[in-house]
Write a structure and sequence with these properties.
Layout: H1 5-20, H2 23-30, H3 34-48, E1 53-55, E2 60-62, H4 64-85, E3 96-102, H5 104-121, E4 125-131, E5 145-149, E6 157-161, E7 166-172, H6 174-180, E8 195-197, E9 207-211, E10 214-218, E11 224-226, H7 229-237, E12 243-246, H8 247-256, E13 260-262, E14 269-270, E15 273-278, H9 285-297
Parallel strand pairs: 3-4, 3-5, 8-11
Antiparallel strand pairs: 1-2, 5-15, 6-15, 7-12, 7-13, 7-14, 9-10
Helix pairs in contact: 1-2, 1-3, 1-4, 2-3, 5-9
């Protein structure tokens, strides 16, 4: 197939569909109609003489030819995008779009406090956040970067610190502690009602404790399991039980007496939030500016 201008556009459309595996989402990303996108893809397949996608009413999957084409095109198109991003050096106001996957705690306590000043400083940059506590492959999901606690960043990614390390606490409402008493040792938690936490890989988190050279992991029991911290804290405030949380999530509650900490001598210090992105891709200028902005303002210390 001889190269034509329309072929390059259609190839970029194909890559967007391959990334999302969904015509509607790809069309929204490209800011064209789903019917126009479908028409472009059909034209590309006809010119190539090959089917690239298997389409049903419920799913879009790549054929073997489609997988081969996606693999061959990914790096060249990344390099083209990186080359265009270089033009930001010559603009008075940088432009660009950044997509990030972030957990709820980072969205509330790390990202939210810096966004107003970032948008004022860089009005031509668009940032889209997907707030989700699940472990997501940011490359496969089409994200420029993700944010996680440092200990959970995939090893094949480049990580950059965004916050100071975080103290992990066990908290409960005064009404619960008056009724059931406070545990004095992590083993005592087996006699308490605890709000259990389902983490991003779908496992139940084992609460971690540390005092000097002693370390414990406790598989707590309780009638409530959550995958979003604020839901659990709403129940804990009303006396539902004890919960294991990062210090930033409960600072306000501890100041006003809504909650109290227990097992303070056992509270471990864990890695803070980190931004992470693929080592195989050029970092977009807009993403670098956002990371620098968070590190400059330090909403959770650094």
């Amino acid at each position: 197939m001889p190269p034509r201008r329309s072929n390059f556009a259609d190839l970029s459309y194909f890559l967007e569909i391959a990334k999302h595996r969904n015509f509607r989402r790809a069309a929204l990303e490209l800011e064209i109609s789903a019917s126009a996108l479908s028409h472009a893809l059909r034209g590309l397949e006809e010119r190539l003489g090959l089917r690239l996608l298997n389409r049903t009413s419920r799913s879009v999957t790549l054929t073997a030819a489609g997988e081969a084409l996606q693999s061959a095109l990914a790096r060249p198109f990344d390099e083209i995008n990186s080359a265009l991003d270089v033009l930001n050096r010559f603009r008075e106001t940088p432009r660009g779009r950044v997509r990030l996957s972030v957990p709820t705690e980072a969205a509330q306590f790390l990202i939210g406090p810096v966004m107003a000043t970032f948008l004022d400083r860089y009005p031509e940059i668009e940032i889209e956040f997907s707030v989700n506590n699940r472990m997501i492959d940011v490359v496969e999901g089409g994200f420029d970067a993700g944010i996680r606690y440092g200990g959970t960043v995939p090893q094949d990614m480049i990580a950059q610190r965004l916050s100071a390390d975080v103290r992990w606490l066990v908290v409960g409402a005064p009404s619960y502690l008056e009724r059931y008493g406070a545990p004095l040792h992590p083993d005592d938690l087996q006699a308490h009602r605890c709000v259990r936490i389902r983490i991003g890989d779908d496992s139940i988190y084992r609460w971690e404790f540390e005092r000097g050279d002693e370390k414990f992991e406790v598989n707590v029991q309780g009638g409530l399991t959550v995958d979003q911290g604020q839901i659990g804290l709403a129940a804990v405030k009303d006396g539902a039980g004890l919960m294991y949380v990062a210090d930033p999530m409960v600072r306000e509650y501890l100041r006003d007496g809504t909650m109290r900490t227990v097992l303070d001598d056992w509270a471990p210090l864990g890695p803070g939030f980190h931004a992470y992105y693929s080592s195989r891709r050029q970092v977009p200028a807009a993403l670098r500016l956002f990371i620098d902005h968070v590190r400059e303002l330090r909403p959770l210390g650094l």
